[in-house]
């Protein structure tokens, strides 16, 4: 990404996500009953900023929608519209659509009318906005606004000019001067007098410029205007000091200086007017074309029988800047008394109404107030600190210490740290093998190295970590849409949103979580009537929490619905042939039937969950993240699904085992238990088919060495070590290995890039001794094997 | 002429774009996230000109301009207001708060530079 605009564009979309997040936060706060102006402003600002950025990239559809949304929020902001719960729902919907549009713009997919039309209709009905004639003009990259007119009165009669040290001050007013706008202006001389019928020849302009005091207060500077004019052509400037009275008669609030300029240029008059756009209304300005004839009179300026300072504007000419910069430097501060500072409160009044600062200037005489202190407190007082998001925004007063880094670079670092970990393990092993005593300098040094390596690894993993908040916020939308679809009143509560989780985990969690949330709304919660009948609050509640627990992330999805209807679940499972009618199942076992493939695809379901995705798919996607999912349910009180995930996908807790001379790693989360086989445990069902009898059930036995083709199946497995693997469908299998060597964290090295997908193998790792070991995908291995055993028409699947 | 410019905007995108436009023009850009941050930056640098957004958290553009204008040492710094709004009322407010000029977003970099030169040489 070397194109800076492309980079900014990319970062714009990242910023949009953040803005969408604060938008959701703000709306949530409004929904929770906060109606202070800062909350509303957060919402407004988020939409406004998206619009602003979108305009810069010509994303007109996005601008258009954001503009409508913004207009509605402006109604709220100004108090013309007070939103109720229904209105906030519509705002939420708008925020969702805005997010869709942002993503569509990012991915350059077309934005269709039907994406926006329904919410815009609701918005219109709500706020009663008439369809505006599109203000496209506003969004054309147009540059500088010209219209500053009508503002001259704001500063009229205020401010002052410095007492310039100039000779002969009691001169009469020359004709050229216009007194327009001067407080004590007496007459308006005929400035345009010599502008008779002469056709403009486009050779240049005669400009007369009489600044009002307000011009200086606004920070405008004649010198710079003249410089800008000079860029247009040859410029001659004459400063008219004739109106300067004697020093003792100098009235502070009056402007005395004016300038007559001749600009020789081929540029049109509009170019000249453009230069004065910011001072329009703050000065008396006449611009008239000059003719060749006029030019013959050398300066085309009326003779001024007064001392006049001619300022040739040449770069680097220091004398040139002197008079003007004196003005710049001295005007308000040096004002005798009443001048600028005294005038400030009045001038500020209109602005202060919209500003968070009440603009309290104690007394006019107490001129310049030191701003930072009062502002600090004013700003703080408008920001209640209970909202974490706002705390976060308030906290850094320093420039934000964040760096945006390409994910690839982070991943390379993660990878390198992985190598470091492996290297360190190899080094440790060699030291051990060398027989060095544990208290030797090498050993203790190595110990520290080990510690540091772990710290580095953790820190690097943290770089990839993100607060889970973005994911939770997406779930807010799912709840809103799902509850609307099934006509239930549901509120989503979230907790632990700042829990940090690996970026990839967050991404891959979105689908299963979405499904679980839909399920909770659709199946978990009772209908409103039922709730009311059973004395529960009308509103159903779905709660989403995240927390770190013993090195893992635990995410709970709970509802306060009726709980799992176990008799019904069992009945259905029997009906579908998933369990035998005689089976005696515990509550937990019945609950876990929900995870069986083919269970929830059944359609008591509304259109909502009827996507053919069942909890079995949820479970397998969680497991593919190295996670586990558990379910607890209390009748009448609700159901909780608990997902436990590793902090990262880059390392894995594994059991190192040996089979037929090979070292393999089995993910720990797949292993339910390990046991050594006795004669009693094993039942042989066929020449190559064994089962393990386990607490009343039968579990198929798989010889790992044979499955992977390392050896032929053994005749007897007595004394063999077995890893009991829990399959995602609730079935189990026993993997026979030769020995268990170790239990450790291993760094995952993908194989698919080099070898494609290898059945039964998830990845590889490098062990401490430098040996490469394959990481098994036990689920895959078992399903492959059971495919074969099914071919042999042998089904042992139901081991409760 | 190379100018030192303080650009105050709560939108990172806008700051990035201002930064790009300003540095491409050979100006030195100092960036701030909002009005309060802008005031802090002002304590450390002396810009030739300030560009500020209006709608910002913590301290908005009006409050920021107001504060700058009230501080003697900053009172003369030209300030351009950057906004999507073009309503006269808003301009009037900014002018009343002490702004020097006005730039409508999205801005054309060339015009931005021209406007800067017009108010700050």
UniProtKB/TrEMBL annotation, chain A:
PROSITE patterns in the record: CHEW (PS50851), HIS_KIN (PS50109), HPT (PS50894)
The GO terms describing molecular function are:
ATP binding; phosphorelay sensor kinase activity
Q: Which UniProt keywords apply?
A: ATP-binding, Chemotaxis, Kinase, Nucleotide-binding, Phosphoprotein, Transferase, Two-component regulatory system
GO biological process per UniProt: chemotaxis
Q: Which residues form the HPt domain?
A: 1-105
Q: Where is the composition biased (Low complexity)?
A: 375-384
Task: Give all Phosphohistidine modified positions.
Answer: 48
Record-listed E.C. numbers: 2.7.13.3
Q: What Gene3D superfamilies does its record include? A: Histidine kinase CheA-like, homodimeric domain, Histidine kinase-like ATPase, C-terminal domain, HPT domain, SH3 Domains
SMART domains, from UniProt?
A: CheW (SM00260), H-kinase_dim (SM01231), HATPase_c (SM00387), HPT (SM00073)
Positions with biased composition (Pro residues): 365-374
Looking at the record, the residues that make up the Histidine kinase domain are 446-649
Return the Pfam families for the record. CheW, H-kinase_dim, HATPase_c, Hpt
Q: What does this protein do?
A: Involved in the transmission of sensory signals from the chemoreceptors to the flagellar motors. CheA is autophosphorylated; it can transfer its phosphate group to either CheB or CheY.
Q: Which PANTHER family match?
A: CHEMOTAXIS PROTEIN CHEA, SENSOR HISTIDINE KINASE CHEA
What name does the UniProt record give this protein?
Chemotaxis protein CheA
The gene behind this protein is: cheA
TrEMBL record, chain B:
Superkingdom classification of source: Bacteria
Query: Which Pfam families does the entry link to?
Result: Response_reg
SUPFAM superfamilies xrefs? CheY-like
Keywords of the record? Phosphoprotein
Stated name of the protein: Response regulatory domain-containing protein
Q: Please give the residue positions where the record annotates the modification 4-aspartylphosphate.
A: 53
Residue ranges occupied by any Response regulatory domain in the UniProt entry: 4-120
- A biological process from GO: phosphorelay signal transduction system
PROSITE patterns for the chain: RESPONSE_REGULATORY
